[in-house]
């Protein structure tokens, strides 16, 4: 094989106490597609940020075209011909395609005549190189998602990129759109561009990649030519670890069905044909990769993006949910994924955050009772062991795990029938994590129907009574929590049909 | 076509109004009153060019009316003292730039919300001017009126100058990279910073620029009458903002162009004379203008809502 | 945590406390420099009770508008149309009484109803079409004023109100100017609404994070509608006392009042971005502006130049700018400090 155009040796990177990369080595040659694979949180995005210069590694060497690069910054990475394309295109939506391309290519000089014809031609050429039939004068806003991806690629090529990182470019594309994009990737490869390709879709990797590197827990667990590996062994590499039995055991027998979904869908958020039941006292885990539609499903159940098809029934009665307010009235609670934006209001006190969803019941006549509220908040602070200076401390002053407990307390206060938890322990330290797990288990024991979305595979396996696996906006399999293993969940999430014992 | 939907629909509305006038009240099309109408609007056209820039950059300036009055009075005083006209002209623009720069510094430098900043400068400037002048008019020497030309000649000069400025600006916004920076900053300040544009500098410049244009407009204003009123320009800011919004510039920044602003301004300006010729009483003017603004924003709102679903 | 020490410091450094201090100093200065004896040995100027009542009487209308605006700005919105709405409701009130021969009470109820409807129009456009409040109320600013002009044909003013009605605007009741009682009632009601009810809580929440509030199961649309409708109602009340004070209803009533009201609210420490602010702050802001305006009118030097109105207006604008700059001062200082600190060794930061 040729000399590598990019070589990373023993890259280490820590954020405070978290070791995100524990000595990763990686290389890329010109005209190669090198796939990068791993679970959510395995260290892929950190590695990419190191390559694009957004993060400085703690130790380790980076070589580009055989030369050691001392300090890689976004600007110097750009000059070295490193470009990245993300799942969500970062373009100016109000400007034309040609202009978006030009803005990234031309040095920003204030008073210079813009030669629209030259811009147009330049854009046309670059778009031709990626085989896109897009009018350079079209507004980016009017383009479809894959078209915007192609514009991003054209932009990257325009800057003379020799190393192109594609971070889940196909996550929001349909099958035919994916094929189109893969065609473009093949063309680029023949033009001698080195491509780092990240995707959760195994079939794409087998279609397009030359080599594949699997990351797990911040370590590289092997680089193999694609021709010498199969899907099963890839999945094994990704999950290959024991699920530690640190999770509190399930104690109760599930009772009656509380919530039942039939063929539920919402076109605007890409969720379709979801059917499952959740019983009282049961923890129903929702597994799947990022973009599989899990959060979107939760948002439908909570009325943020109301369903446009199918049926939700609660205790056997069909209900309609058009807004979060209605969801709360029906006894559905949702602890959102993005707790800093949606879960707690950072500027407001813990006490105010906790009573927020129960204003009508807790404050009859809309009249605030500060003493009662403070006492109420105190009980939750004690019960959930929230570490804070007191009920008056603003939500923003707490650590992630304690913020999550405040969000949880807000929803427990509503005495819900159904509790939806979206990534309940993401960004939470280990101690708080196991406390939150105990709380969730206790709630289920009290008869709540719990739906728990998580990208943390051990958590899903350790906590769930049953596991629904989502892929492409729908539930593709439901596994028994006792018999499921990492392999079967990952296989279902990646779309490998064998191993699903619905 | 779809891209310029908004501008075209305003132009069509204007066309329909003009057509209705041609059929129902041909008296509307007498050359002299029309020329006078356009002359009266000339300063507004000039300021609207600047306001369009400010709003495209996702800011707003409601102090232009006060700036306009300050520039008018200062220029008038200098002219009355017998300073040569070109110097008066330059100092009017200079005062405008100065006031605009203060706004720009407060907004771009201190990151204060432009609406409140310009509200404060609006009140301060207006009241300061009133205090200094006590409602006194400035009598101008004859040389200033119509810049020494005949009335018709002066009117033609003002109208052509303002329209020429608008045309040049419209092309500059399209053809000069500085113009494109304004769009980029209004669309996404952070992304434009990453593309090497300096958003704060752009914001500051738009405010300084609208100040300069206000100074220019003030000169166009004082040329039209033998005296300068210290109260001139009251409510001008809303008139200009209304024209810009009706012309399709999005208040959320990044969208719109000066051709639409021109059509919007003419549409609003024609309401009053059209009412007179249609024998509708003139006191409906403001209500109708308010209605037009609301209609424009409601169609925008409906369109974006449709796009989202 | 040594709460006591910090608590005191925090109270002393609060915007409202500083403003109160400024107000007291302002008042004392005017009392000292603005009060004098006339030739017959009677005290005149700022220090007299009559003057103090005058200040109160004249600040009621702008005060009411500022009260109405406080919840609006707390939610992160703005209402430019309330000055125009004051004009429109004054005209509706005058016309219904004068031309439709309704009783004063009925006319007042109808005017308040029109105010509520107008606020509802603002709210509908803002919540259902998601148009920024600034631009919606800019449109209704023109529309309401224009309707007032259209109703009166631009020139009619309604006068000859009965003395019993004028009492509300021109006489004293229980020792205070009559309209001050209305103002006090509205002020207390607004204070309770903002500081003591769940509604006020949710206004702040919306101001901090509209999405976060929605995720807490609170209907943001309903709360916003409430805020703008209340603003309309209060504007109508202000229109009624305006009419009673001047004895006439005219289309240009309340022109430019919205600016003074916004100034008072922002001066009172309410953040234009929403979330932070208080009703008592607004009251202090109103008082600071009113005292400034009236106090200046009593200063001999200002009387000689006959420029009290303009000077106070200018000072109000300058005060607003100052308040704005002081609001970003801590932020600028902290970034400056952190920039300096980053040059220091790392260990100081962690401790």
Layout: helices, strands, pairs:
The complex is a heterotrimer of chains A (502), B (309) and C (351).
Chain A: E1 4-15, E2 18-29, E3 33-37, H1 44-51, E4 59-64, E5 67-69, H2 74-79, E6 82-85, H3 97-105, H4 116-129, H5 145-158, E7 163-167, H6 175-190, E8 194-198, H7 202-208, E9 211-216, E10 219-225, H8 231-239, E11 257-266, E12 271-279, E13 283-287, H9 294-301, E14 309-314, E15 317-319, H10 324-329, E16 332-335, H11 339-343, H12 350-355, H13 359-362, H14 370-383, H15 400-412, E17 418-422, H16 430-445, E18 449-453, H17 457-463, E19 466-471, E20 474-480, H18 486-494
Chain B: H1 5-24, H2 31-56, H3 64-80, H4 85-109, H5 114-133, E1 138-139, H6 151-175, H7 177-187, H8 189-194, H9 199-222, E2 227-228, H10 236-246, H11 258-277, H12 285-308
Antiparallel strand pairs in B: 1-2
Chain C: H1 3-13, H2 15-34, E1 35-37, E2 43-45, H3 49-74, H4 82-98, H5 104-128, H6 133-151, H7 163-170, E3 172-173, E4 176-177, H8 178-196, H9 198-208, H10 210-215, H11 220-246, H12 257-267, H13 279-298, H14 300-305, H15 308-341, H16 347-350
Antiparallel strand pairs in C: 1-2, 3-4
Short summary of the structure?
Chain A is α/β, with parallel strands linked by helices and 502 residues long.
What report would you give on this structure?
- The complex is a heterotrimer of chains A (502), B (309) and C (351).
- Chain A is α/β, with parallel strands linked by helices.
- Chain A contains 18 helices and 20 strands.
- Helix content of chain A is 34%, strand content 25%.
- In chain A, a hairpin with a 2-residue loop joins strand 9 and strand 10 (219-225).
- Chain A is globular.
- With 309 residues, chain B is mainly alpha-helical.
- Chain B has a single domain, classed as Orthogonal Bundle (ABC transporter involved in vitamin B12 uptake, BtuC), CATH 1.10.3470.
- In chain B, 74% of the residues lie in helices and 1% in strands.
- Chain B has twelve helices and two strands, in the order αααααβααααβααα.
- Chain B has helices at residues 5-24, 31-56, 64-80, 85-109, 114-133, 151-175, 177-187, 189-194, 199-222, 236-246, 258-277, 285-308; strands at 138-139, 227-228.
- Chain B has a two-stranded antiparallel sheet with strand order 1-2.
- In chain B, helix 2 (31-56) runs antiparallel to helix 9 and helix 2 packs antiparallel against helix 11 (258-277).
- The longest helix of chain B is centred in the N-terminal third of the chain and has 26 residues, at 31-56.
- The model of chain B has no long low-confidence stretch (mean pLDDT 88).
- Chain C is mostly helical and 351 residues long.
- Chain C has a two-stranded antiparallel sheet. Chain C has a two-stranded antiparallel ribbon with strand order 3-4.
- The longest helix of chain C has 34 residues, at 308-341.
